[in-house]
């Protein structure tokens, strides 16, 4: 029998945070859960690339949603080591993650991760449903979405909790808070996924610098290599066609000696071969905000846009989801209104998210114009940096109630 007192929760976006929140609440008879996802059921955003997820996300997920954690770990490779070298082969840092974390992180393909997260949610996610607008009337919160297959516009009224899992350009944040211009850091970041081939020297997470120009790469399941290259750009933030030319990319990574180490040579060859498949982006971050008013909660990139330097964007979205699920269950158990959830989540998460946003920005020092990868990396071996890494990876300060 359907409980007429069911609380109506609308989650916009079945990305990392949205899917996990939906997973954690989907089975409850006292909740009517609606998850709106702009893309179709077989489309995957950024399906062509990979990502690393920090040890802290796996730790939080194991505590809060153990079966989700195991499904993700089983379909990924462990992230156990972080090395930093110059493109001429000089090794600057070789950090086993167990020295700063209690468990490994993971390496995975986006397509695989999205498929795993969304698989158990067939009955909950409305695909091709693009949130168009939202707001508050005397009757409560509402949301309007367009069914991209039929073109029909559908309105959902009397929402008890509206959750913005709709990413960096969140419509919900824009409506209830404001539109925020991104803070650009003056760095172009591009991504590529390609088959490893038989002579691949890339394995766990590594970075190779020539001046501030950086290559980052690691293997992901399915015998693919994920590579993220970067280089500083001018204050105008423009990435010109000239900068994207394969010969220009080879030039910026080639050391004075003219000779690239085996890993850098392999990556530069792959970049040249696959230049037309590269995804281009720029490093940017913004301010942290979870509470967008009574019953309106921001999570993931909509709450705390950050630079991906420490691989913490998706990682923090996972931490958010664990806390949100816990807060909602606790409110229902205690008979408290869901309108208070945003303030409760903000109280538990804001300090931690602000720490991660600023730590990620600080760790970008070696990628900025004029950055010195040798001095900057040696600093990353000092206690001031490793203590922050330990705080990041171990202090998943989301004790479940
Ligand atoms: C170059 C680059 C590399 C990165 N590498 C890493 C990494 O290695 N590790 C890491 O942890 N993080 C990484 N990140 C960050 C990571 O991608 C994000 O932080 C993470 O995906 C945020 O999760 P989310 O759930 O907030 O949003 P998303 O995963 O972006 O999901 C948002 C969802 O909302 C949907 N949506 C958007 N608008 C609407 C709408 N109007 N209506 C309905 N649905 C909508 C989208 O289709 C999408 O499914 C990287 C980011 C970049 C740019």
Mind explaining what this structure looks like?
The chain is built from 11 helices and 18 strands. The protein is an alpha/beta fold and 401 residues long. The protein has one domain: FAD/NAD(P)-binding domain (3-Layer(bba) Sandwich), CATH 3.50.50. Helices cover 32% and strands 28% of the residues. The mean pLDDT is 95. It has a 7-stranded mixed beta sheet, with helices on both faces. A 5-stranded parallel beta sheet has the order 8-2-1-12-18. A 3-stranded antiparallel beta sheet has the order 3-7-4. The protein binds flavin-adenine dinucleotide.
In short:
This protein has eleven helices and 18 strands.
Keywords:
401 residues; five-stranded parallel beta sheet; binds flavin-adenine dinucleotide; seven-stranded mixed beta sheet; FAD/NAD(P)-binding domain; alpha/beta; 11 helices
Provide the low-confidence segments as ranges.
none
- How far apart the termini lie comes to 29 Å
Q: What is the helical fraction, as a range of percent?
A: 25-40%
Give the strand order, joined by hyphens, for the main sheet: 6-5-14-15-16-13-17
Catalogue the ligands: flavin-adenine dinucleotide
SSE run:
EHEEHHEEEEHEEEEEHEEEEHHEEHHHH
- Strand content range: 25-35%
Structural class: alpha/beta
Number of helices, counting only DSSP H or I runs of 4 residues or more: 11
- Mean pLDDT across all amino acids: 95
- The CATH topology annotation reads as FAD/NAD(P)-binding domain
Total beta strands? 18
Shape: globular
The CATH architecture comes to 3-Layer(bba) Sandwich
Structural domain count: 1
CATH class bucket: Alpha Beta
CATH superfamily: FAD/NAD(P)-binding domain
Alpha carbon gyration radius: 22 Å
Largest sheet: 7 strands, mixed
């Amino acid at each position: 029998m359907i409980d007429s007192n069911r609380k109506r929760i609308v989650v916009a976006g079945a990305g990392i945070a949205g899917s996990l929140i939906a997973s954690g609440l989907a089975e409850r008879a006292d909740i009517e859960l609606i998850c709106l996802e702009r893309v179709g059921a077989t489309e995957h955003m950024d399906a062509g690339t990979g990502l690393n997820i920090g040890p802290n996300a796996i730790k939080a997920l194991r505590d809060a949603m153990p079966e989700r954690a195991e499904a993700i770990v089983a379909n990924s490779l462990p992230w156990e080591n972080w090395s930093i070298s110059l493109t001429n082969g000089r090794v600057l840092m070789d950090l086993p993650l167990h020295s700063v974390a209690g468990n490994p992180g993971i390496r995975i393909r986006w397509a695989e991760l999205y498929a795993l997260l969304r698989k158990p949610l067939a009955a909950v996610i409305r695909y091709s449903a693009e949130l168009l607008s939202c707001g508050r009337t005397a009757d409560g919160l509402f949301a309007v979405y367009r069914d991209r297959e039929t073109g029909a516009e559908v309105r959902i009224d009397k929402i008890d909790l509206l959750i913005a899992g709709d990413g960096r350009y969140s419509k919900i944040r824009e409506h209830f808070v404001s539109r925020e211009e991104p803070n650009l850091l003056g760095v172009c970041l591009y991504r590529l996924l390609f088959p490893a081939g038989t002579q691949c020297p890339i394995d766990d997470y590594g970075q190779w610098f020539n001046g501030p120009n950086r290559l980052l790469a690691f293997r992901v399941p399915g015998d693919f290599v994920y590579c993220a290259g970067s280089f500083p750009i001018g204050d105008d933030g423009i990435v010109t066609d000239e900068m994207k030319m394969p010969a220009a990319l080879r030039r910026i990574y080639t050391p004075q000696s003219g000779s690239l180490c085996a890993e850098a040579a392999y990556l530069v060859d792959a970049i040249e071969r696959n230049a037309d498949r590269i995804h281009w982006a720029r490093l940017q971050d913004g301010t942290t905000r979870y509470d967008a008013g009574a019953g309106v909660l921001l999570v993931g990139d909509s709450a705390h846009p950050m630079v991906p330097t420490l691989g913490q964007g998706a990682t923090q979205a996972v931490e958010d989801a664990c806390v949100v699920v816990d807060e909602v269950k606790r409110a229902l158990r205690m008979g408290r209104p869901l309108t208070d959830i945003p303030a409760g989540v903000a109280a538990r998460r804001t300090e931690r998210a602000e720490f991660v946003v600023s730590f990620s920005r600080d760790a970008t020092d070696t990628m900025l114009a004029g950055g010195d990868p040798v001095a900057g990396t040696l600093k990353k071996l000092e206690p001031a940096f490793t203590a922050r890494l330990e705080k990041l990876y171990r202090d998943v300060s989301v004790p479940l109630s």
